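User: Can you predict the 3D structure of HNH endonuclease? Sequence below.
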Amino acid sequence: MAWSSSNRDARFNPGWERTRKQILERDRYRCQWIVTDWHTGAKHICGYSANEVDHKVRAKNGEPDDDSPSNLWALCPYHHSQKTAQESAEQRRMNRERRKEEQWYSHPAFQ
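Assistant: Sure. Here are the predicted structure tokens for HNH endonuclease:
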């Protein structure tokens, strides 16, 4: 979803820009995504230049985001888009399951 058509920014706290800057500085403007080396299995952070801050665990059901520093990390655009795509796919799957269950229980036998 493009930010131009999103209302998600309305959920940001008024001090988001300051919080964002603090997280980027804390993480030294380096992506904190954990990467696994497929040759050795060793894990390390991506370390690529980061200019985006993301919630490690996103809010559910329209609840406010947890903006505590322990729930925020700097991500590069690539890993941020990968994480967002994964979360979107999971939400679509949950929505499909919910609709399927609603359709099942709308059958006349359950009326």
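The beta strands are 34-36, 43-45, 52-55, 72-75. Residues 77-105 form the longest helix (29 residues).
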